[in-house]
Amino acid sequence: MTTHDKPIELESVQCEVCLKEVPISEATIPEASDYFVHFCGLECYEKWKQQGDKSKAQANSPDS
């Protein structure tokens, strides 16, 4: 009798910036258990961080 192994489906999450699928095993960081976002790489992390810095600067400007 032959058995067919079922393919293992890896659980994944989306990168916060480019929405690329990232395996959750690669994206999980124990230190960030309260609130966390996932990134596919350092480039997307830097883009996300720069967007946050711009938002903070605009919120703190006297024109707002």
Q: Can you tell me about this structure?
A:
The chain is 36% helix and 9% strand. With 64 residues, it is an alpha+beta fold. The protein contains two helices and two strands; from the N terminus they run ββαα. A two-stranded antiparallel sheet has the order 1-2. Strand 1 and strand 2 form a beta hairpin. The protein has one domain.
What overall geometry do the principal axes of the alpha carbons give? rod-shaped
Roughly what is the average pLDDT, rounded to an integer? Answer: 75
Give the spatial strand order of the biggest sheet: 1-2
Number of individual domains: 1
**Total strands:** 2
Percentage of β-strand residues = 5-15%
Question: Can you give keywords for this protein?
Answer:
64 residues; two-stranded antiparallel ribbon
Provide a short characterization of the protein structure.
With 64 residues, the chain is an alpha+beta fold. Helices cover 36% and strands 9% of the residues. The protein is rod-shaped.
Question: Secondary structure elements and their pairing?
Answer:
Blueprint lengths: L11 E3 L6 E3 H4 L14 H19 L4
